[in-house]
Design brief:
- With 380 residues, the chain is an alpha+beta fold.
- The chain has three domains: 111 residues, no CATH class; 109 residues, Immunoglobulin-like, CATH 2.60.40; 113 residues, Orthogonal Bundle (Cytochrome Bc1 Complex, Chain D, domain 2).
- 38% of the residues lie in helices and 17% in strands.
- It has a five-stranded mixed beta sheet, covered by helices on one side. Strands 4-10-9-6-7 form a five-stranded mixed beta sheet.
- It starts with a helix and ends with a helix.
Length: 380
């Protein structure tokens, strides 16, 4: 066992490249990380395993901040005890002419904390943006939360309850909504936690790096049986994942289900090529800028498509009248996801202009903005 620990410890250390450059502070963070790794190998884990591409970076920030906090705490405690003894009653310490001002000391105790705060801010902000911007080619998994279960659907049509099978080495993007109250999708081994809100869509992503079975929790109190709202993430080798997909086929793909619903609801009568009502074209819409009647420009992402179906008057396309009816309450959240998946599959004609859109709807210098809406505005 001792020989095994000596040979495996260096591989754990190399997973913290950012802290290695931080000198003594980084060395202490690495020491804590190595202690955690050895404890896990000996059957006494100090934390969840690092099973995603972002987990080592999150842990590096955490252990560096923990190390800094320990240094400050021990330093303050040491100085308190030291001065209590040095200047105790009856000691021979020189108390004459005490200093009233020390400019260098004042600059140091203000400047150093500010510099450390800026370093941690830049480091954490970079990690945060990487955590919430999935790379291209990610697998889209649609998640619906409800009391007290997780419903997940693959783009190929497979549905799962309180379980998710994903391949190792491929990014996975979760597109999530809630049918009732606020939930939170939390996988400790992947270091991801994202609130799941009713009436709107939220997204997060991860990339599993180790095959295994990992806990899924709801991290937001959601009612009486909140503690039972758990599940499992099964990270599989790519070949095993493809075998699982082939063995679980049977339902049509999410886009195919959305196409069938699209025809049933009569959406093609307005948005189709031979439409009778003047409505925006949907082919090639996903991911493109959309000018609004209020002068703003938004990107047609999953949230925009979701809101356009349930709250069509929230963001009206420039040049069109707000005549589309709301489907809120008429279709389920699962059906909304099916429609969104179908619209996303409709062509990819980048840069193709809508011939019915006024030419002056978007100025040359128009700024693309993301229209933020409160949760109350989306669900009322």
């Amino acid at each position: 066992m001792t020989r095994k620990l000596k040979t495996e410890a260096p591989s754990r250390v190399t997973s913290f490249p950012l802290t290695r450059r931080a000198g003594g502070l980084g060395s202490l963070a690495l020491l804590l990380a190595c202690t955690k790794a050895k404890a896990q190998e000996q059957g006494f884990p100090l934390g969840p395993p690092q099973a995603s591409s972002i987990s080592t970076r999150v842990d590096a920030i955490f252990y560096t901040e923990l190390t800094l906090a320990l240094i400050i705490a021990f330093s303050v405690c040491f100085l308190v005890v030291f001065f209590c003894f040095k200047y105790r009653h009856g000691s021979r310490a020189n108390r004459s002419n005490p200093p009233s001002r020390n400019a260098k000391l004042e600059v140091a105790w203000i400047g150093i904390p500010v510099l450390l705060a800026l370093i941690f801010f830049a480091w954490a902000a970079r990690t945060y943006f990487d955590m919430y911007n999935p790379p291209p080619g990610a697998i889209d998994i649609y998640v619906t939360a409800k009391q007290w279960m997780w419903k997940l659907q693959h783009p190929e049509g497979q549905r799962e309850i309180d379980a998710l099978h994903i391949p190792v080495g491929r990014p996975v993007r979760l597109i999530m909504t809630s049918q009732d109250v606020i939930h939170s999708f939390f996988v400790p081994a992947f270091r991801i936690k994202q609130d799941v809100l009713p009436g709107r869509e939220t997204t997060t992503w991860f990339e599993a790096t180790q095959a295994g079975k990992y806990h899924l929790f709801c991290a937001q109190y959601c009612g009486l049986n909140h503690s039972r709202m758990t599940g499992w993430i099964y990270a599989m080798e790519p070949a095993d994942y493809e075998r699982w997909l082939s063995q679980t086929q049977g339902e049509p793909t999410l886009a195919a289900q959305g196409e069938r619903l699209y025809e049933q609801l009569g959406c093609s009568g307005c948005h189709g090529a031979s439409n009778t009502v003047r409505a925006p074209t949907l082919e090639g819409l996903y991911g493109k800028p959309v000018p609004l009647s209020n002068g703003q420009v938004v990107i047609a992402d999953d949230r925009y498509l979701h809101d356009s179906i349930l709250l069509p008057k929230l963001q009206v396309v420039a040049g069109y009248k707000p005549v589309m009816p709301s489907f809120k309450g008429a279709i389920s959240d699962d059906q909304v996801m099916e429609l969104v998946a179908y619209i996303k599959s409709l062509g990819n004609n980048a840069g193709r202009a809508d011939p019915r859109l006024p030419q002056n709807a978007v100025g040359a210098g128009a700024e693309t903005t993301y229209q933020q809406q409160s949760v109350k505005a989306r669900i009322k």
